[in-house]
């Protein structure tokens, strides 16, 4: 075998680098879904759709909403769950119940390291200190 | 093991079914339901929205202020000094507003009078034709509107618009907004913006902010409906439009 030592050493270094994320995280706490601050019960008891559905699909829902509103001029959404009508608006509907962007949006987005640019234009409600 | 055609087809069939089942469940996790969306029940509709500006009723520069203020306040339009100014509704002189060949012996007051300017919501808008992302598009009701989510800031529309109706955000406009209207978004750095004929107010059954603030000096209505107020006013008064020879067919008319 030619240069066997170099090849094996190279493979060891390569495998070490490739698996770096795995052994770097050994011993650290597992990912936990952050505790979200839900709106108080007197403001809202139910979201547009069920909470589990919203947790998984809100990005697609919001993406559709913006097209339906801006491009098609359809502004009223009928919930599949409750049949109630909602205005499709981040500022006029969503943030009227979820009044804290920091406690509701940011917590998950920070933990999941996603940075949606909604708030570059849409105005988040003032945070109560 | 010998692989014959019969055996291969069996395996391929089972594999395809498995893949289809996997893709099916993945696609079914989000089902948008278009049948569950509708416009507001009290929204205003028209075949083609248009505006008439009665310039006889504007005498001083101050007469325009409440209109401009109402518009800019409602839409979070920033006040940026210098050459980075953003404007939806503004004024300029007769010669700048109507720059084509004038009458030789023009009425004296025309040399000094200001005119209210805004996006003309053309029937044949050049900005829509040149927009590479279709961020600017013409709605079925004639409003030339922008989808800010799609604007890439290429500024072709600014080059295309013969009326200078569009402004570019060279910087974040937020520090220049005195009082934020939390019901309407601001814009971000690197997008173009313009008047949208208050499409969001029409959706709620309200007239545009400037029309509401004008106390009858502006008339807003459906140009396609011969019975509408705006058509009666156009039929009874002599009106001009900006740069009609370009063929963009503006929907904003000026009574002179």
Automatic annotation (TrEMBL), chain A:
InterPro entries cross-referenced by the UniProt entry: DsrJ (IPR047668), Multihaem_cyt_sf (IPR036280)
Residue ranges of the TM segments: 7-24
Domain of life: Bacteria
The entry's keywords: Membrane, Transmembrane, Transmembrane helix
NCBIfam families, per database record: cytoc_DsrJ (NF038038)
Protein name listed in UniProt: Cytochrome c family protein
Originating organism: Desulfovibrio ferrophilus
UniProtKB/TrEMBL annotation, chain B:
Protein name: 4Fe-4S ferredoxin
Highest taxon listed in the record's lineage: Bacteria
PANTHER family attached to this UniProt entry: PROTEIN NRFC, PROTEIN NRFC HOMOLOG
Residue ranges occupied by any 4Fe-4S ferredoxin-type domain in the UniProt entry: 142-171
The organism of origin for this protein: Desulfovibrio ferrophilus
Major site of localization recorded for this protein: periplasm
InterPro entries to which the protein is assigned, alphabetical: 4Fe4S_Fe-S-bd (IPR017896), 4Fe4S_Fe_S_CS (IPR017900), DsrO-like (IPR054822), ET_IronSulfur_Cluster-Binding (IPR050954), TAT_signal (IPR006311), TAT_signal_bac_arc (IPR019546)
Pfam families tied to this protein: Fer4_11 (PF13247)
GO molecular-function terms, A-Z: 4 iron, 4 sulfur cluster binding; metal ion binding
Endpoints of the signal sequence: 1-26
Quaternary organization: Heterodimer of a large and a small subunit.
Subcellular localization, as worded in the UniProt entry: Periplasm
Keyword terms, alphabetized: 4Fe-4S, Iron, Iron-sulfur, Metal-binding, Signal
Statement: the UniProt record of this protein carries the keyword Iron: yes
Keyword Zinc among record annotations: no
GO cellular component entries: periplasmic space
């Amino acid at each position: 075998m030619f240069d066997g030592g170099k090849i094996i050493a190279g493979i060891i270094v390569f495998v070490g680098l490739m698996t770096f994320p795995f052994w770097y995280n050994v011993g650290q706490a597992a990912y936990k879904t952050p505790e979200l601050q839900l709106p108080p019960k007197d403001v809202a008891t139910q979201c547009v759709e069920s909470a589990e559905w919203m947790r998984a699909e809100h990005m697609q829902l919001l993406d559709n909403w913006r097209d339906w509103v801006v491009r098609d001029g359809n502004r009223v959404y009928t919930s599949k769950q409750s049949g109630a009508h909602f205005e499709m608006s981040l500022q006029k509907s969503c943030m009227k119940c979820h009044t804290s962007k920091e406690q509701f949006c940011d917590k998950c987005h920070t933990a999941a390291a996603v940075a949606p640019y909604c708030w570059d234009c849409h105005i988040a409600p003032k945070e109560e200190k | 093991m010998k692989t014959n055609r019969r055996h291969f087809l069996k395996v391929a069939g089972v594999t395809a079914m498995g893949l289809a089942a996997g893709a099916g469940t993945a696609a079914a996790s989000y089902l948008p339901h278009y049948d569950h969306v509708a416009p507001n029940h009290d929204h205003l509709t028209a075949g083609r929205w248009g505006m008439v500006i009665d310039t006889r009723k504007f005498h001083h520069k101050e007469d325009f202020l409440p209109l401009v203020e109402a518009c800019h306040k409602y839409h979070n339009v920033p006040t940026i000094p210098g050459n980075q100014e953003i404007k939806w509704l503004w004024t300029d002189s007769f010669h700048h507003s109507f720059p084509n060949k004038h009458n030789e012996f023009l009425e004296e007051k025309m040399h000094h009078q200001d005119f209210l300017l805004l996006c003309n919501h053309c029937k044949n808008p050049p900005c829509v034709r040149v927009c590479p992302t279709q961020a600017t598009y013409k709605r079925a009701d004639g409003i030339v509107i922008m989808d800010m989510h799609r604007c890439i800031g290429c500024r072709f529309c600014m080059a295309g618009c013969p009326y200078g109706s569009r402004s570019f955000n060279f910087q974040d406009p937020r520090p220049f907004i005195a009082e934020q209207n939390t019901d309407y978004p601001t814009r971000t750095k690197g997008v173009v913006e313009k008047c949208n004929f208050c499409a969001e107010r029409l959706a709620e059954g309200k007239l545009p902010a400037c029309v509401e603030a004008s106390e009858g000096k502006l008339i807003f209505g459906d140009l396609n409906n011969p019975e509408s107020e705006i058509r009666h006013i156009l039929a009874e008064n002599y009106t001009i439009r900006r740069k009609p020879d370009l063929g963009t067919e503006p929907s904003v008319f000026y009574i002179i």
